[in-house]
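Appendix B, example 12.
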Amino acid sequence: MSSSQVGPKHHTVVVLESELVGLPQELDLPKSTYRIVSYPHTAPEDIAARIHDATIVVAVTLKLDEHVLSEEVSPKLQLIDYVASGTDGVDKQACKKRGILVCNASGASAAAVSEHAIGLYFALRRRILPTHEAVQAGNWTERSVLNGMMRDRAGELPLSCKNEVLGIIGQGVIGKSAKIGL
């Protein structure tokens, strides 16, 4: 492959949502120089103007549709680094047509998602929201205890952690991150 087919030796890296992604000051781009242009936040209507000279775009939540991925709007674009678990916000067909590489950060939020799932489990199992609302409204003082509100449809109190086993279905990044010692 000739050097003209490799691509430019100078990259313009445009970070569209730097408030959401911590990009290092130095990048590992062998045999290349680069310039980083960073925007803390980008409104959807500003994407096209900001990525016009980009060879690399870094985004987290923004939708990169067929229009902004067109050759007219982003003529130099070679790579999109979508710093999220998936790439749903990127029009992959438009990228494929132009040979734009798309990568993501698989498992980027795995710990947060697994902790959130476990937290929601406990919130539902222990009926945290209804009991909190009862305390806020002063309704619990009528009975002086809340355990009556925590009972399930069969009238049973929730099991404690030492009496219950929580199963994690899935062996992906999120499922593996959900292991906790109770």
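The helical segments are 3-6, 47-51, 92-98, 110-125, 128-137, 147-150, 173-177. The chain has seven helices and five strands.
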